[in-house]
Amino acid sequence: MPRLEEHCWSCSCETKHSSGANWLASKAEEMMSIITSVLRNAYGSLHDVRAANLIRRGLVLFTVGAFLALVLNLLQIQRHVTLFPEEVMTTLFSSAWWIPPCCGTGAAVVGLLYPCLDSHLGEPHKFKREWASVMRCIAVFVGINHASVKLDFDNNVQLSLTLAALSLGLWWTFDRSRSGFGLGITTAVLATVFTQLLVYNGVYQYTSPDFLYVRSWLPCIFFSGGVTVGNIGRQLAMVMSKPHLILSVK
């Protein structure tokens, strides 16, 4: 009889241990599913916030690029630096309709690439990160464009060297980053090649071309423009990543 009672007692203990282990396992599985669901929802919310911020930054950069392109292109047309067909001059603001959207798209791409490249290289740009500096950078960029059509030199080489020095001065004053310099050079090369293809196909032309259908100072303009748009993109990325803005989006 004692052996039978001991056997029954051990069986009941094992049953209790087994049921307790099963209960703990089910509770742990339930907690894991809850945690996974919470993390998935948090990641989805964060992804949505980042996507919304990216779209808003892109729209702001597109608007700024389109506006600057329209104003600066009109300046070059008035000074007879660029020549368009007569039927083009009767369109919006006496300028080619495709220039603002093309330049706006380019500004959005370049402005979004600058903070992404900073993050990828692990070198966050912290030099003069305030809107006052960005506005001064825009003013200097407009001044460089104004100088390209106002300054009168004996030849385009002297003008190109002067604008190159001004463009490097803009980068040194408002950027000083390797990523900014490299992306500015890339922007200048690609934009100049694209412009040369447009001129080669007769879309428009430059007066007194001296560098494969265009002016030799044109890469300087694109370089300084890339640095300027990059600073705008960096500032937008910093402002829109603040916690109170993310909470307001949610």
Number of β-strand runs: 2
Distance from N terminus to C terminus (CA atoms, Å) equals 70 Å
Number of structural domains:
1
Taking all residues together, what is the mean pLDDT?
Answer: 77
The major β-sheet equals:
2 strands, antiparallel
What is the structural class?
Answer: mainly alpha
Q: Which range best describes the helical content: under 10%, 10-25%, 25-40%, 40-55%, 55-70% or over 70%?
A: over 70%
* Number of helices, where a helix is a run of at least 4 consecutive DSSP H or I residues: 7
- Please provide the ordered H/E string of secondary-structure elements: HEHHHHEHH
> Shape from CA axes?
elongated
Q: Please give the order of strands in the largest beta sheet.
A: 1-2
Radius of gyration: 30 Å
Uncertain residue segments: 4-9, 243-250
Proportion in β-strands: under 5%
Transmembrane segments: 59-77, 97-117, 129-149, 155-174, 181-200, 212-232
Pfam families: INSIG (PF07281)
Subcellular location: Endoplasmic reticulum membrane
Family: Belongs to the INSIG family.
